[in-house]
């Protein structure tokens, strides 16, 4: 077992190391779900085979030894049984080959399902805002149905295995006895021969069952090894291999500040990736000196405390740490946190805003004190005043990094005069390069770029409140609840359950009946006076023995069949319930529960959650006690104390083992979460050169999981020793009472009693307790599934009250004394908000970080339910209708451009409601048509997981195209152009104005110029409305809005409301 654990640890470590060194070209071939499956399923398969590998020689050895002893008892007739065994082995080999093919199919479907679930859970906000849950639920269920079909075929093969296990010893004994009688008429069936043979035939049962199982495991492991080999042999990244776009050539002086600008898709982020060594080399070389720090465009945040996210494995130097916090404008945020910088941040930073994530990411880079800083547009997700603060205090000529080499990708041209060198990218090449003055004086494309970018931008931050500390492991104590068992049996189907019990009772009764028949037969042999008469009756008795065996085989088949049907029914029902419950959870739940933990629940929903052969074994043990007691009534005196000790051991073991297994299950989630987190942030980890530290952390979480696993193994050994001792005591007392009975007991009864006692001692007691514990452990999986049913759900998707067709037709939104809070223990995020829009009105929503802007849109979509007041849209209180009736009739372009793996067409129109012509029209409106037409497969172009093969700006434009396909009267723009350059932003804004001219539009401002031409502007501060009027009137008042405009450097001309830089 130790060897098996070491092998699993080594394989997990290899997979983790490989994931960190995998080249981007290779990474595209593997989704996160597939790589996680390699770590969980395939590594586990290797470990399980290592544990049982010795059965490949020990099982045949046991079979050979049993056959040798049988030869001594029954002579050459045993060859008939051996021939039957040899006939079964190739059949088992064929079954193993079939299992191998089924395993491949099962793993393929399992990978697809886990991958889709992972993407759905990471993009759950989009699914909820667009009311796409049912469509994606059907996708998951269709994959699950394919998986269940494979499980069904596997279950029918299990039926054959159960038949082999139960009936082969009987068939071997029947064939051997039949030949024994026909070889020599003088052969007589005595108790010695019969029960010695029966014991030997029973010894054959286990190796005969184990051998095909281990052969099947070898086949499955071969598949796993093939998958692991393909992954481990995939191409690695070479830090020296860089892609130079169209003969890209540049030299950057040490200690300079370099700005990289250009339109969406021009190659800005790819330029940084090339410097990092993240791109495939075609030709050329790169030379860089010193350590590197990297702040990615989409900030990567670990599931750790805020302080650990900044330190990133470095030692804490308090003075410098405080300076970094101040420079990154994080001190005001720390005051809002329940535990300051010790507050735990959720997975992917789900419980902090986009601006806060970017500042933490920047602080991490600054604290590393590297020589080269690669900053991929970190200022796009912060307020304009915060952006200026960050540039002045950190990036600029007088900032903290003034002596370092800095490469800054930016869309904010106001910082360009302060840079030493500007690189203008266009279609993967450098179109221009020089200082600000040099490029402006050339009056070429750069001057046009500056003209387009003339309006400065401000970002008002997403204001999602901190959700507090983040819990990874919930401790579960206590015994298995009966409600959990009933839940499973209900899913299993009561009809299948009663049929299963009947089948197992029947097969055990027939097994006992067979042995009783042999016992009676041998007793008659001992008493027979007329040998000729006995010979005439032996054929009849042999036929009866054979008939009992055939009927037993039928019961075995029926039992295995109904278990398969019931288990599949339970698996299908529980998976559907879990998926339905998860999709009905409110969005806040996904911000506190790790995605890895939720996926872990889905991977536990397998074919058999409760092992019903436990009840077969239970019936066998009870039958054994009855047989021995009927032979030796005094045995009942021993059964009582033995039973007491047995159940004491069982209770002690199950209570301990259940908790150990629960801890092992709970400690497995951090392994998956850490691995998934690493896959997302691998570029940042490699840029900082922290691969070894993350490998050590992975080893730590794996080690913690293995500690619990090893304790579970030790507890099993502890159980085995005690149960073997109890079993031996049972044999001892059974034999003792037989001896004490003297001649009062027939030899056939003695043989029956001892052979049954031996069977119980060898395997049944141990098997019984282990399977009882396995039932409890599997019940924990069901218990966790049931937990999701008990969690608070969001409102029903559809209610009896439906809005009229075509609602909303005017787009009038009215907030009436509305209050909302993220949690009961937190303050109000919206406080007495009351305002009303007019039909087709364009309203801008502005405010500083934490003002309540995104909370307002969350309430409009009922992502966050109000605590008081109401929201009315075209005369209907939105709290009175179903969520899908509401969300399906609203439209939003979210801040985070989330795409799903699949075709571009499926990302634009997952419900399949629109024609290709309509898709091309919206692509043209979004200025993506030329790009898509240049792709080989056009609309069928495969989008990689998370849309990684598109730039962030292109992803945002795809999200705009989605919105254009939805014809609704209300549109919310949640900082929708945060990731695009100013030129594209202007094109997008003009498209929105033209295509949504008859809609009510709520715009959360990213760049203030986007709301300057709004009909009215709503100014929020700490959840309250400060101002609500036209931009012109607000500027005249010299209030909060006027201050923000002044800070942004925007001057409004009173006559024409034009935009000019001051």
From TrEMBL:
InterPro entries: AAA+_ATPase, ABC1_TM_dom, ABC1_TM_sf, ABC_transporter-like_ATP-bd, ABC_transporter-like_CS, ABC_transporter_C-like, P-loop_NTPase. Keywords: ATP-binding, Membrane, Nucleotide-binding, Repeat, Transmembrane, Transmembrane helix, Transport, Vacuole. Gene3D superfamilies: ABC transporter type 1, transmembrane domain, P-loop containing nucleotide triphosphate hydrolases. It is a multi-pass membrane protein. The keyword Amino-acid biosynthesis does not apply. Its main location: membrane. The keyword Manganese does not apply. CDD domains: ABC_6TM_MRP1_2_3_6_D1_like, ABC_6TM_MRP1_2_3_6_D2_like, ABCC_MRP_domain1, ABCC_MRP_domain2. The chain crosses the membrane at residues 49-71, 77-97, 162-183, 544-563, 619-647, 725-745. Residues 226-452, 813-1047 form the ABC transporter domain. It is found in: Vacuole membrane. One of its GO terms (molecular function) is ATP hydrolysis activity. It comes from the Eukaryota. GO terms for cellular component: lytic vacuole; vacuolar membrane. Pfam families: ABC_membrane, ABC_tran. Residues 1-220, 498-767 form the ABC transmembrane type-1 domain. Belongs to the ABC transporter superfamily. ABCC family. Conjugate transporter (TC 3.A.1.208) subfamily. This is ATP binding cassette subfamily C member 6. It comes from Strigops habroptila.
